[in-house]
């Protein structure tokens, strides 16, 4: 939401500023069309940059974070997103109807925690860090092993049948 708001606000303010700069430089200062266009594009770029930086700084102040902390949180959220995808893939590869409800509940809770941490980054340090570094890792690892176990059993049974046929005629 922050990124979307930053882009929309920047565009809404930048377009009138760019138009005003072009009109002033073309008609009032009497510069050429290309030079006026170049100056207005430079002004638009500077305006957009200032607006983006000011919205970013306000966002950090609102959530009481430093740039370093926010970068750290974003990096960990991106890693968590990959782990959530792996978990989802492993959960949907398990074909037991008995575990379907628990799997969906687990996935729903994990996604909710991820969403809350994305909205309010300070929550990462208020308990979310432990979730992302230990609980999510454990859930992904256990689920992947559990999903792999039935597949390996089937292969083992096929291998045993094949082995028994070849050894015992």
From TrEMBL:
InterPro entries: ChloroindolylP_hydrolase. Pfam families: Halogen_Hydrol (PF10112). Keywords: Membrane, Transmembrane, Transmembrane helix. The chain crosses the membrane at residues 7-29, 35-57. This is 5-bromo-4-chloroindolyl phosphate hydrolysis protein.
